[in-house]
Structure formats: structure tokens, C-alpha cells
Amino acid sequence: xxxxxxxxxxxxKGVGPKRxxxxxxxxxxxxxxxxxxxxxxxxxxxTQFHRIxxxxxDIGSVQIKGVLRRLTVAGTGRKRRLVGKLRDDSxxxxxxxxxxxxxxEKKLEVGKEYVVYGRVNAFKNxxxxxxxxxxxxxxxxxxxxxxxxxVYPSTExxxxxxxxxxxxxxxxxxxxxxxxxxxxxxxxxAYFLEKLKLPQRYEALLRVHFPRNQxxxxxxxxRLKFEELFFxxxxxxxxKNKRQKAIKxxxxxxxxxxxxxxxxxxxxxxxxxxxxxxxxxIRRDLGRGVQMNRLLQGDVGSGKTIVGLxxxxxxxxxxxxxxxxxxxxxxxxxxxxxxxxxxxxxxxQVAFLSGSVKGRARRELLEDLAEGRIxxxxxxxxxIEEPVVFQNLGLAITDEQHRFGVKQRAKLWKKSSPYPxxxxxxxxxxxxxxxAMTLYGDLDVSVIDELPPGxxxxxxxxxxxxxRLKVMGFMKQEIAKGRQVYVVYPLIExxxxxxxxxxxxxxxxxxxxxxxxxxxISIVHGRMKPDDKDFEMQRFLRNETxxxxxxTVIEVGVNVPNAxxxxxxxxxxxxxxxxxxxxxxxxxxxxxxxCILMSSFKLSNESKERIQTMVRTNNGFDISEADLKLRxxxxxxxxxxxxxxxxxxxxxxxxxxILQTARELAMRVLEDDPSLERPHHHPIRWYxxxxxxxxxxxxxxx
Length: 702
Ligand code: ADP
Ligand code: MG
What we know:
By secondary structure, the chain is an alpha/beta fold. Among the domains are: 48-144, CATH 2.40.50.140; 257-286 and 303-427, Rossmann fold (3-Layer(aba) Sandwich), CATH 3.40.50; 459-617, Rossmann fold. 41% of the residues lie in helices and 17% in strands. It contains 25 helices and 22 strands. A seven-stranded mixed β-sheet has the order 6-7-4-3-2-5-8. The protein is globular. The structure holds adenosine-5'-diphosphate (ADP) and magnesium ion. Magnesium ion binds at residues 304-305, 399.
């Protein structure tokens, strides 16, 4: 940043010490530069008139010109409102006021032409403008050039002190009077700007604050979005390159007998195209002499386990051991079961370790492991504890949602020498591509985006309380066919007592409807002792109970193929990705499965949208895209504490294409000029040096 932008904000014309203090406290604006780089959140565009026919729900605020055709008071009490009908030569639109009804009714004249400004609202696909500004058309406003004003984020305190958007605009004006284009040097090479048709940096900054028309604004915003995403991608790719240079790994040269024998004799089905592709990616990683750090994303049921297993066989073929770690005891046991079944007859030793393996069994296991008599170790986090010593661990797989913390990673890495083991992280929480590129931009990511053939879609149905009897009847039918049913209740900390009460009441109501001895019901929630929970789970697993009443503890992993129905209570209280994870507990066998989403009758628009998304699709990637649009990137599961997703202007929900371009260009630049030495890359290098210093200590770990 050049000198001018480092000036304390206090010295800007019209600011002074008092206002400077407010700006610092409320908005973190300390310098001229801070002011410059806080962009408007929206704009008031009165430079053009929209035609009514062109309006749509996402258009935001618009100015229209039309004749007021009708004005009536509708409704009573709190719903009393004034409704006007505005017509232009393309169509008609409702204007609605809930306050000042009497006064407005007198002031507005039917038959007169008005300039109307306001935010378009959509209710059941009917557009209207609530509380629009109204100005009768006259000689003056016909002449006047319309305003195009930026609106800045503000706070009540700032507004009270007169530091509103208007004041901000005055400050921006003073700032641009002080500034020279040289104060914000270009940080992108000319060939980028030409190719992408983007304005210069100074021009973009000027026009994002002072647009003259929509095209200019759009170009300015695109330029600033691109710049923001490009430097982040450049940084992530640099981290990745550095790590690949620095961290050597075992080289698995061959794919040998175990792999081939398994592939040819044991594999009970044809791999999907996606599974084959991912296996190839992993094989390539394992043969390069660099430690693998790969994330494997795949929807529930997409067949990640088999890919994990076959990767382990490659390790074993090269004389190494492998381990697989799961977040809970039950999940670990299920993996142990299915993997033991898969490799039966292959002359491989598979062992299980968790906190519950104790005494002599544990001692023997640890001895066998250290002496290389165990090929595959499966278990919980107990695997990375101190006393667990491998003879030669070559590959570690983790099956869980979250990436390792620093400490855990260090523990895992110490399990082998001279290099750390290769690491494969499997996650069943699909995240949208744009997010993956950002959150995991420094990792290698594989995606299984195809389900094994013959899977039946889980039929998802939305029901309200009125239909509870019908739902119970449906449960009875499924149980009569020998199937099992989950009934899931929300439980969150803030309302835990009430939630547990609901769960208990639901359990009792079900017990009356499904009485013993004909029916048996399990109940599981997070407040139970682990042993009790486990006992109940096992009963359901063994089909001794037909109904499992539970909170979201069943969300991850458990596999009960005989469960074909899930009833989710208070669906509106669950997030989309959570609902999808829950639903993934059914549909695991060959039978048609069902998911019933129970909710109250009255729902917010967002809840409706979530439920409709669940009803519409079974695809986890579609669902995560919808979630991203609904809630924004910072609120998706697993991204909560990520400062990485805070952008000044880019929006991962909307700017996927810009991001893709930014990443591709960053890759290309680093490929042909890794240290940014070429003259035409100097603008990038100058800026990136500063950028990476700021980002230090902030990099991500796997
Ligand atoms: P997830 O990705 O959720 O961990 P799993 O690996 O548990 O999925 O696989 C789900 C089920 O699909 C398992 O029963 C597995 O045997 C089966 N499966 C995996 N791959 C295929 C395939 N290519 N064809 C048919 N069935 C498959
Ligand atoms: Mg799995």
C-alpha cells in the first residue's frame, strides 16, 4: 500500500478525531486504505426505469414509472393495509403499505403518474413492492439525472452520530480527491485484464464506490471479485506446492498380488467409473515419493470404503501396514466387520482396536502390530495413542467429517519413519465445488460423484401434524414386512431440556401405538451413558427392536440395511446437510426406502425451501449447493470457524465461475513461472509478497 492509503482516517477531510474513533470501533476503519477497501453492500440505482414485465424476485430494489390505477384499503386489524395497483405499458404491480395508511390514502391520487422506488418482494410468486417511495412525475424529476448511490454497512451508533451512508459517500469523495491512481498500483498482469475484459484496479475501485451505470458497476465488481479470489487461490496453490516439495513419502512402486487377487477374485461387483478414477488418482499419489494428503469426498453410499480398502491393499503389496480410523466405536466395528468380510481368504490379518480392547487381548494385539503380524488395523482414535506402535505404517485412512487438528496429525505422523504415512481422509459431507476449492484448496481432492448402479432413490415425503395417524399406519406396514424404522428428534444444547422432553413424549406415544410384546422400541440420545447407548444400538442392529427413537446421534455412519423408513420430527429445526446425512441411514439395502419429514403447518420461507430441496433430490452435492445459496458459505457444516471464507466482495454461492477462472489462471501462472520472476508477472509478485505475509500462520492442516 502506498503512502496515502496509510494515513490515519482522522486526517481525512471531514472526519477528525471523534468520528475517527467511531469508525475504528464500529467498522475497523483505521486508515484511508481501510475506508477504500470496504465496499458498498448495495446500491440505490435511480438512473433507469425498469419495466414491470422485467421484474423478478431476485432483482432487489428498482425504480419504475407508472400510473396509479387503483387504491384500496384491505384487511383489518394487524393485517390492515393500503394496496395500490401501478401500471406501466408492460404490466401491473401491487404496491403495499402497512403503516400510514390513512395519510397515504389521502396523499396519493389514482390516475396520476408516479416514479416509484422500492425493493421487490415475492409472495407465492406474486410480485409487489412494500412501502415504496412515491414521487409524482413532474417537470423537475423528468429533467434530473438519476442518482446511483452506494449504500455502506453501518451500525445504529454510527447512524446516530451522522455517519450514515450519505456521510460515507462524502468521505469517499474526499478520499478520491486525495488519491492518485498510483496509490493503488495494478496487481494483475495486463494480459489477464485483456483476456478477461476487466478494468484496471484504480478504475474498478473508483467505480465500485461511484458507479455511473450498471455495466460499469458490474465490471468493477467482477474485477475486484476476481482479484480477491485469484490471490487466495495463488496462495493455496503455493502452500500445496511447498508441502509437496518439503514432505517426502514412501514410494509404493508396485500394485501386487493382494490387490490383483482381490480385484479379480473377491470384488463382489464392478467398480463404478468414479471409484476407478479415484483409485487411479490415489495410485498416482502413492508412487511419487511425496506424502499423499488426499481428501475423498463422496455421498453416503457412494462406496468410499472399497476405495479405502483397495488403497490399503496397495500399501500391503509394498510391504507396509495400513490403518483405518473412525470417529465412533460402532462405526469402527462396522468397518472392521465389512473389511474382514471383504478380505476373507486373502491371508491378511485384520485387527480391531478401541478403548474397549483391554488387558491381555490388547497386549497381544500391540505386540503383533509392532512385529508386523497385523496388516490392517481398524479402530477409533485409540489408534493414534502413544502405546500403539506399528512396524511400518504406510497408509492411514480416516473416515470422518472433520479434518485433523494439529496435535492429532502430529501423533499420526509420528507413527512411521523416516516419512509420515500417506493420508487419505474420507468424508461423507459433500461440499460444493467452490467451497472445496477454497477450504481444501491446498489439498488434493477426489470426488466420487456417482452412486453404484441399481440404487433406489429414497422417497421423501413432507407431512404435517394432521397426518400423524397416516404416518403411524405406514410405519406399521413397513414393520409388518419385517423392516425397521428410525424416528429422529432434534436436540440442541440451547433447548436441551425441552428437546429431551419431546423425545420422551414421542417415545411414550409410540410405545402406546406400538405396544410390546409385538413391538420393541429402542431409544438413544446423547445424554445416555455410552454403554447404554451401545446396548440399545446393538439391539436395533440385531433386529430385536423395530423402532429406533433417537436424536441426531445416529447421524454418522451406522449401517442397518434392514431399516427402510425414517421419520424426522420437527424437520424445520434441522439444517439441510444434517437432514441429508440423517436420510442416508436408510436406503442401504435393496428395498425401497422412505423418509417422512414431519413439520408444523406454518413454516418460514427458508424452512419450506429446505424441505422442498430434500423432497426434490437425493443428491448430496445438489443439496450442499442449495444449502450454500440459502445460508451462505460461513454457515455450512464443517466450515464454521473458517476465517478463510470471509471475503470482501466475492460470494462463493454466486461467483463459482469467477472462482474457477481464478484457480485455473493461478495454476497456469505457477506452472510456467513458479517464482513469479517474469516481468509480466511482477504486478502479481509485488502484491502477493504482501498478501502472503498477512496470511502467515493461518494455513490449513489436514
Ligand atoms: P460410503 O461411501 O457411504 O462409505 P460404502 O463404502 O459403505 O459407502 O458402500 C455402500 C454400499 O455399497 C456397500 O454395501 C458396498 O458394498 C456397496 N458398493 C460399493 N461400491 C459398489 C459398486 N461399485 N457396485 C455395487 N455396490 C457397491
Ligand atoms: Mg462409509
